[in-house]
Design brief:
Chains A, B: It holds the Pfam family TetR_N. Chains A, B: This is Transcriptional regulator, TetR family. Chains A, B: GO terms for molecular function: DNA binding. The structure is a homodimer. The first copy, chain A, has about 230 residues and is an all-alpha fold. Chain A is built from 10 helices and no strands. Chain B binds a DNA duplex (30 and 30 nucleotides) through α1, α2 and α3.
Chain lengths: ~230, ~230
DNA sequence: CGTTTCGGATGACAGTTGTTCACTGACTTC
DNA sequence: GAAGTCAGTGAACAACTGTCATCCGAAACG
């Protein structure tokens, strides 16, 4: 009954875009499949707010979704598989954000304020995702660790490319620029993780953390500006 | 039989130091207890190299030690209890190291080199402990997370106190100094975690990481030196 | 010496887990 | 409209988990 209702809903939208991207196996079947796949991901993420991926049970997830344990295998080979999928979901949308921030041409103080503000907002909007990333970055599941590391390296690549175009990078070798980019990325992760430790509605605590984050970025920024000065 | 052999061995050493420190309940009994307690900690740490604390089973640990599952409760109320004990064991000895490094009076470049070298050596010598800290810092067990956070805050306190005595800190407010100290501590943790990702015998990789760590510290150090410069 | 203390062993308890299997029935394709 | 695909089911499997009441025997104590 319920499934029927959903299938009709999905058939309509499938009719709307019949011959768009995927040629064969189009329509209701795949839509329903991706729907329960997404339900598994959502339930997993929710359960992971208070435990580690390595202690999250397969049955626990399927029970939360309301499907049989065996159904899990139609979507992921492992719990590690669900983990890597969650990494993509958590960090995938950040590439565009980073590119946008790096493309802005403002003064140093302005870009620091904006970076911290965007980080705070992103954490506020995707709390469980960020918590998952922080928790599993050095967690017990190798595949997930590697997926996160690859994603963060991608971020560092983009930041390094952005830094290279700035006039303030004159005199920096590519290797040094890469280290600076990684420092910025690690600082962003560190700040995001710190935001997780205060309640989402504790505006005073959040502002305190944001202030500290801006201060740290300013120190790094000043160090970058005086990098070529004669050393004492 | 095996227990008998051990008890005789311990009786001898207990006779050697009969009336030393603890007045009552002295000797063999406590020594044996602390011995298996340590065995539990060691086995736990070894098993935690490839998994998370929240997925580590009580029976798994006792099996590795060779004692019955019920014996675990004589030493820890929980697996979380074993976790907090491991935090103390991992980070306790670092306070002295940090104090020693902060007390040294060398030039900025020298202190950076030494800090990175000491970090690398400490990681090399206590690999499983550091891995445990990195893994559980944002892990799924609240008590352990809090224990780690408390220990790291203690480090930041000591670094802040050390920075306050340096002439380079003129013009810094206590709050700003505290942020700087936390930045140094976080950077140390970040560097230590990075060391874990390369093989212990990969000297080239280790030197590459150490080089990057020195570079990052130099950026921060320069930023600190020019903190009071008029901003452009 | 006898008595008490207590670290550890034993065995059982009720749950839970991951994985596999044949299967059903709605969607897809010809 | 018949044939095929395939997401999801239900049951069963062996293995495992944390916790408990109970007992044992060596160390500690008077």
């Amino acid at each position: 009954m319920f499934t029927d209702f959903l299938s009709v809903r999905w058939r309509k939208s499938a009719n709307g875009c019949l011959l768009n991207d995927m040629s064969h196996t189009p329509g209701v079947r795949q839509a329903q499949k991706q729907q329960t796949r997404q339900a598994l991901l959502d339930a997993g993420l929710r359960l992971l707010e208070h435990q580690n991926l390595s202690s999250l049970g397969l049955r626990e997830v399927t029970r939360a979704v309301g499907v049989s344990p065996a159904a899990f295998y139609r979507h992921f080979p492992d719990m590690a598989g669900l983990g890597v999928a969650l990494v993509g979901e958590s960090l995938g949308s950040l590439h565009a954000v980073i590119r946008a921030v790096m493309a802005e041409t403002t003064d140093s103080a302005g870009i620091i304020d904006r970076t911290v503000a965007i980080t705070a907002e992103y954490v506020a909007r995707h709390r469980p995702h960020i918590r998952f990333i922080a928790r599993e970055r050095y967690g017990g599941v190798q595949a997930v660790r590697e997926a996160i590391a690859a994603e963060l390296q991608g971020f560092a690549d983009e930041v390094a490319a952005g830094l290279a175009t700035q006039p303030a990078s004159k005199g920096w070798s590519p290797g040094e620029l890469r280290v600076l980019a990684e420092l910025y990325v690690d600082h962003m992760v560190m700040t995001a993780a710190a935001f997780l430790d205060v309640a989402p509605d504790d505006t005073a605590g959040l502002e305190h953390l944001a202030h500290a984050a801006r201060l740290r970025m300013r120190i790094i920024s000043i160090g970058r500006a005086h990098w070529l000065d004669p050393q004492p």
